Structures are given as structure tokens and as C-alpha cells.
């Protein structure tokens, strides 16, 4: 009997806990660049990219070749037992790319959550302080500390009780929803007045462009004021570039466009082209604050993932993917704004930084009425027509596009045509 999506979904429901969500009832069988084929042989255009993991596309030949070569050398020693050159070489390259005119060092780990956890550890050890300020709408991971930092209870921490203490929530600047730069800075000052003295705060962590929160871009002026505030009080600024990093926004790291540098930068997702790798890069003096043995992990910075990441960085150079990112973003934004012009009562805003693109939907053009139902309809209709999309946002009313930067124009245009059909069919 041939496998079907329905039969595999039944097996999944019996074997996998329901807490592991699944956006599309589809089982992938193979993929190439920006196309995915399911177990029934149906091909889909992938505008999700594994949630920003496949900036270089599915199974990029150069990445696969690098991984294959490494597989035939060694797959694991644990870097803390026997080191290997790819780890060091990758750290050198990351140190050179992360913004900041200062000496840097990089720690490699396995997941984005792990990177954020370690960034907080480093900040606490460096400052001798324990508190952390995060923002409304933030997403930093699903581990206990990162759930505390994440600004969305349902579904991420629902039913799990209170998360770790010492975390305080400031307002993320969001002009569309009435939160000005002044409002955001004032909310931090209120924390200093009401909850914790500045000398108790180790770090402020921020996504330069919010991911799960809705792809809102932090204004450059805000980032400059936030940097000055951190400097004034001896607080470390952590840039969470897990989703924005590896070229998604038109520069390798989004902070390159923000006019200031963070003290610590987290990265993951697309850095290794689909292989699990993450890390923290920061000022050498801060990165060295923890004694030997305090950082690391059994699989952290595996030789396989390091080889993949080094290949990804070569692909970016050879294929000029930062330029391609800007072209992809412009093409999609132009197309999406044309769709918006036809459906102004539903589509409230199309926004992007590079190829990190969002479409926010409202009811009857009212920005106080998020339209999650319309988003769900578009995602489902698009799937039926052969396009994989994602939603996001605090209220689930944002469509997000994270198509591989290597997708050809014809596929981008076909995806846009499907999205246009979906909006035309909305009830």
C-alpha cells in the first residue's frame, strides 16, 4: 500500500505528542531549491523555507558536497574533547561578519534557543547582574529561559505555569499599532522605576526584525537610543538574529542596517543550510567571562554542521545572494502591494526588510481588528493550489514569506499569482 499524507498523519497522531504542532497536513518526501515534493508526488512552491532555515534553498549542491566530504572524514568527536578545524574556521568567519568594531569571539551550539540561553549566561557572568529586559511580541525560543523572554503565552508556554523570574517586558516600537519610539524607551524607564534598578539588569535582548511577532522592523533611531541607554547603565545589548541572520534582510546580519552594534549576537536557522547549528558572537571580553567548562555541549558545533555553514558562506559570496535577497524582496513586495491595492479592506500593510516579508490582515481596514481567520483561509487555499505559506503575529493575522533566496523569478511570480487567487476567493 502506497503511503499517503492521510495515512502518515494517522501514524503521527498515534506516535507524536500533540504539543508538536504541524501547520500543513503534508509529509515531504524530497525537495530541491524552492520546491518540495510530498509522499503522494505532488510538488509545492516553498515560501516557508523551513521557517527561515533555507536561504540557500533545499539541498544546495555545494552544501551537500561539503557535508558529504566531511562525513567521510569524521562526524563527531565533541569539540570539547577533540577539536577540529571547521569549528575554528567558522568562528573566524562569523567574527569577521558580525557588526562591531571590536575584538570578537564565537561560541557554536545547536539550536536558536540554546544560543539565546547562552547569550543570557554570558551577559550575567560578564555583568554580575541577573535581570533581562525583553519586548512585547518577542520570540526567543521554547526552553524555559527563552519561554520567559518570549512575549506570547499561547501556544508556547500555556499550561506550564510561571516562567523564570528576573525577566521584564518593554514595548516593542510599532508605529502601525500606535507604539512610538518614545513610548518604547519610556517603557524601559518605567521598568527602572517600578521593577528593577538598571544595576540589576544584565541585558536587553531584541530582534532587529521581530519574527513570530509579525516581522516588525525596529527603527534605526530606536536602536541608536537603545544602544545609548545600555551604554549609560552598563547593560549588554543582545541582538537575536536567529531569524534575521544569514542574509535574510539584505545584509548578512540585520544589525548592519541599524547604525549600531550589539554586544552579543545570536544566530542559527539559515547559517548552515538546513543542518542544526547556532551560536553566540560577541565582544571577546564578554565571551571570555565564563571559565572553561561553562560553555559548550555534546553536539555543539558538530563538524557536519560546521562544514555546511562554511559552504553556505561560500554560496553567499559566489552567487551574490545578498544582492539576490534585495531583488527577491523588491519583486515580492511590488507584487504583494499590487494585491493590496485590490483588497485594501483586508490587507492593512505589506512590509519587508530585504526578503523578510509580511502581509498584515485586518477586518474592514481597522488596524484594531486583526483578521486571523482570513490568514488561515489564505494559508489553506494556497496549500491547495500548491504554495506553502506561514502565518505569524501576536494575533495570528500576519502572512509571512521566507522563500529561499535562490528561488527563480518564475517561481516567485507563480507564488504571487497563487496568493492573488487566494485573496480573490476570500469570503
TrEMBL record:
Is GTP-binding set as a keyword in this record? no
Query: In the Enzyme Commission scheme, what number(s) does this protein have?
Result: 2.6.1.19
Q: Which domain of life is it from?
A: Bacteria
Query: Keywords assigned by UniProt?
Result: Aminotransferase, Pyridoxal phosphate, Transferase
Under the GO molecular function aspect, what terms does this record hold?
A: 4-aminobutyrate:2-oxoglutarate transaminase activity; identical protein binding; pyridoxal phosphate binding
Q: Which cofactor does it need?
A: pyridoxal 5'-phosphate
GO biological processes? gamma-aminobutyric acid metabolic process
Q: Kindly give the PROSITE patterns that the UniProt entry links to this protein.
A: AA_TRANSFER_CLASS_3
Gene3D superfamilies found in the cross-reference section = Aspartate Aminotransferase, domain 1 (3.90.1150.10), Type I PLP-dependent aspartate aminotransferase-like (Major domain) (3.40.640.10)
Root EC class? transferase
Entry-linked Pfam families: Aminotran_3
Which family does the similarity line name?
Belongs to the class-III pyridoxal-phosphate-dependent aminotransferase family.
Q: From the Swiss-Prot or TrEMBL record, give the protein name.
A: 4-aminobutyrate--2-oxoglutarate transaminase
Species whose genome carries this gene? Pseudomonas piscis
User: Which gene carries the instructions for this protein?
Assistant: gabT
